[in-house]
Amino acid sequence: MPLKIELKPGEKFIVNGAVMVAGKSGASLALRNRAVLLRGRDVMQESEATTPARRLYFTLMLMYIDPENRAAHAQSFAGFLSDYLGATTLASTRAKLEQIGAAAMSDEFYAGLKHCKELIALEDSILNPKGPAQAARTIARP
Fold first, then answer.
1. Which of 27, 37, 62, 80 has its CA 20 to 30 A from that of 2?
2. What tens digit of pLDDT does each residue of 65-85 get?
3. Do residue 53 and residue 80 come from a single domain?
4. Cα(76)–Cα(65) distance, integer angstroms
């Protein structure tokens, strides 16, 4: 079954490493075989990887969109994951880290990114309990 996505006008996305932009009226895209696809709103810049959860997201994203350098990204990812697991005793955080690690180990990168977004929201609620979640502003830009 093909993957179908609807793109907004001017929305950026990556397919197999190529950055593309939807036209003025948007686009409907159907991928009929396995491909690396990441919407622009899910792309994180290195300068935005400012917390442990965001560093995990960024390196996992690189593992997903840059398969030629996956081994190097995986080594960084494993280090960040190990450091985070060693630094937290919160059961909810540890459970999410285990889900992220399992997704990465099974090459389910997109699922891992979704788990990372949840971890970012959890991390934000702990670091800034009175303010709005940074995850929505940092990863899901309009």
1. 62
2. 999 999 999 999 999 999 999
3. yes
4. 15
132/71 Cα distance (integer angstroms): 35
Cα-Cα-Cα-Cα dihedral sign, residues 96, 102, 104, 108: negative
Together in a domain, 52 and 90: yes
Dist. CA 104–CA 113, nearest whole Å: 9
**What domain range includes position 16?**
3-42
- Residue 90 CA to residue 53 CA, distance in Å, equals 14
- Claim to verify: residue 97 and residue 131 sit in the same structural domain: yes
pTM: 0.83
Question: Would you mind telling me the total number of residues written for the chain in this entry?
Answer: 142
**Cα distances (Å, whole numbers) of residue 1 to 6, 30, 61, 103, 133:** 16, 10, 24, 22, 35
Three-class SS state of 34: coil
Phi, psi of 18 (to 5 degrees): -90, 125
Residue whose entry in the numeric block shows the structure tokens 């609620």: 125
**Could you report the per-residue pLDDT of 91-117, keeping only the tens digit for each?**
999 999 999 999 999 999 999 999 999
Instruction: Give the C-alpha separation, 104 to 115, whole Å.
Output: 11
Q: Are residues 66 and 131 in the same domain?
A: yes
Number of structural domains the chain divides into: 2
